[in-house]
Amino acid sequence: MSIHNVEAYMNHGRWVADCPGPCYEGAVTVPGFACDECRELGHHVFVVPLLPLDATEIEEAMCLRPEARTRNWRSETVEELHRETRDLEREFIETQLDAMGARMMRPYEHWGEEERYYQWQEEGQFGHSSR
Predict the structure, then answer these.
(1) Is 118 a domain residue?
(2) Residues of the chain where predicted confidence (pLDDT) is lower than 50
(3) Burial class (CB in 10 A: 0-12, 13-18, 19+), 96
(4) What is the pLDDT of residues 80-106, one digit of tens each?
(5) In this structure, is residue 113 part of a structural domain?
(6) Domain with 23 in it
(7) Hey, which of 30, 40, 53, 80 has its CA 20 to 30 A from 10?
């Protein structure tokens, strides 16, 4: 039996590591075990996924993401993950609003409450009317 220490990465919110054995395709989840693909080929490969030092912070950042398919990590810093999460939340909200038929109002599409007052003030001050 051969034992391999392999750097882990996060895929859909779970820690996994790629098998370095002869199968070249097995993914092993934490805490680590023998690769089924290699076992079928007659090899006994035990993979030990090595988690990063800040694994807890990475997991916390990933738990904030609305969808499991977006909970992926390879080498980003925790700050980068938080920035990506904010962008993903915005995209998620916009997608949900779009599915409901709603859309964001553009600033030029409506009159603000004070804009009518300013219009009235200009008409009175300069003696002209927009009509």
Answers:
(1) no
(2) none
(3) exposed
(4) 999 999 988 888 888 888 888 876 666
(5) no
(6) 2-99
(7) 40
